[in-house]
Each structure stands twice: as structure tokens, then as C-alpha cells.
Amino acid sequence: MKSMTGYGKAVANHHQYDIAVEMKSVNHRFLDIALRMPRELNSLELALKKQIKEVLVRGRVDCFVTINKEEADSQVLKINWSLLDQLVEQLTEAEKTRYKGQAFSAKKILNSAILQDTLFEIVEDEIAVDELAEDLKVTFQEALLALDASRLAEGESVQNVLTNYINEAIVHLKAIEADQKETEQEFQTKLFEKVTQVLGDSVHEERIFTEIALLLEKGDISEETDRLGIHFEKGLELVQSTEPIGKNMDFLIQEMNREVNTIGSKTSLISIKEHVLALKSIIEKMREQIQNIE
Which residue ranges does the record assign to the Endoribonuclease YicC-like N-terminal domain (predicted)? Predict the structure, then answer.
């Protein structure tokens, strides 16, 4: 069982760039993915979302991708060789012929030419997209698995809490069943004595038992307690599952609550009503817990 709340992070260092991927998730009815990354990586969005869908089923997942280029490795010198060749050739020729014997230095002019952007330019080296894409997918998967592990760890904690709640609810259910059996027998005996005392022998004993049975049937909660017991057992089975159980548990909680409400409406016994109130409280706590279960 997994929680929908978790956090994962992964970092990778390369000679041209560093990759950092952070993921966090919270509860959501469906799987809702939000990716925030550099615009030049938008072409990878579908592939990255597919990676998430292969691991997670529900939850709001926010992913943050950061690419930091290594400044020293990302800059290269770009020389316009065609223009530079022409400049050297013409300055050399001018020094030998046109300005021969004059204060003219081709070397000085070439030294100052280094400042000209048309000849020498420092530009950002373009990172190989294919290489970056593969590195990002690997780092992204590491962060995703870290997120999944985080969700699983929290899910185990919730699993223990739910198991304790269900076991506590089973104790109250057994107490209700015991009170109901004891009360039915006592109610039947007292009612028979009361009817006999009032009517004497004028009413057949068979008729009295028939009327008593009808009254008892109206307040019978055995079907509700049986179904509630089945729901509790199913709940214990579900919380041990490794598959997503959030939606199934949500439906089961509704059914538990319905049976408990019916029991409460059928009985007039204070002892049973006290257990009904306790069960309602436990079921509400369970409902709060499963809101964060995948």
C-alpha cells in the first residue's frame, strides 16, 4: 500500500552540465502530472510523463528539472578563418609593398584585431540533445524511484494505522453481537411474562410467540452485523495488498458507514448505541486516512 504523499530527488554530474530532478506528490483523485523544465527540453515531456505513469497510479505530481551548464566547458572560441586569412595576407603584402619603409606594423594591427567580433568570438557550445535526453531520462527515473519509495514508506505507516482501526472496530462489533443475543432472549422472556400477566390464558401461547417474533424481527440487526463483519475482513485484506486500494477502500468505508447507521436506527439499547457511536468515530478516522492512499 502506498501513500500519495512523497518526495524524491536525483542529481547527475557530467562534463558539460549538471542535471537535478526534484519530485513531490500529494493526494489527488487521479494522476495529475506537472513538469517544469527548460524550454529546450519540451520535446521530452511526453516520454517523461510516460515514465511516471509506469510507476504511479494516483496523485498530483510536481516535477522540477534543472540543467546547469559548466561555464568553462560550455564556451568555445569561434574564429572566422576566411576573414582572418584575408587580413593576414593583405597586411603582410601592405607591409612589404604599399607601406614599405613607413611606420607600419602588420603585427600591431593583428594584435588589436583580436578584439573584433567578426574575427574572434566566444560562443556557448551546444550540448548534444540526444546525449542530454538519455542522461535526463536516467536521472529522472532515479528521482521517480526515490519518490515511489517515499510514498511506500508513508503507506506502510498508514497501513498500520488502518489495521489498528479495523481491529478496534471488530471488538465493538463483537460486543454489539453479544449484547443483541443477550437482549433478545431477555426481551422475549419479559414480553411473554407481561402478555400472560395482562391477558391470562385467553390468548394461545403460539399466538404470543408469533407476535414476539414479529417484534424481534423489526429490531433484528443480525444481517447488518454479518455484512459489517464481512466489510471489516475485506478491509484487513485490502490494507495488506500491494496494489492501489484507495478507491476500493473509499467504497468499502461507505458501506461500513451505511451498515452502522442501520444498526443504530434499529436498536433502542443504550449499550449498542454506545458501540455504534464508537464505530462511527473509527470509520470517520479511517475515511480521513484513506484520502491519502493511492
Answer: 1-159
**Are 290 and 162 contacting, i.e. CB atoms less than 8 angstroms apart?**
yes
Q: 39: which 3 cell numbers?
A: 524550454
From CA 80, how far away is CA 140, in angstroms rounded? 40
Phi then psi dihedrals of residue 199, to 5 deg: -95, -15
Residues 147/8, Cβ–Cβ less than 8 Å: yes
Mutual angle of helices 205-218 and 129-199, in 10-degree steps: 150
Distance CA 283, CA 166 (A): 8
Distance CA 114, CA 116 (A): 5
Residue pLDDT, tens place only, 37-86: 988 888 899 999 999 999 999 999 999 999 887 655 556 667 778 887 88
What single-letter DSSP state applies at residue 242?
S
Q: How far apart are CA 208 and CA 196, in angstroms?
A: 9
Q: Is residue 268 part of a domain?
A: yes
Closest CA to 57 of 151, 156, 146: 151
DSSP for 21-38, written as a single string: EEEEEE--SSEEEEEE--
Rg (CA), the chain: 40
Do the beta carbons of residue 252 and residue 286 sit within 8 Å? no
Together in a domain, 145 and 212: no
Cα distances (angstroms) measured from residue 136 to each of 62, 66, 141, 287: 16, 10, 8, 39
- Per residue in 214-230, pLDDT (tens digit) is 555 565 788 899 999 99
Q: Which residues contact 245 (CB under 8 A, 6 or more apart)?
A: 1, 238, 239, 293, 294
For 130, the grid coordinates are 540526444
- Residue 1 domain-assigned? no
- The model's pTM is 0.65
Quote the distance between the C-alpha of residue 120 and its chain's center. Answer: 53
* First CA to last CA distance, the chain: 7
Tell me which residue range forms the domain holding 35. Answer: 6-70+128-151
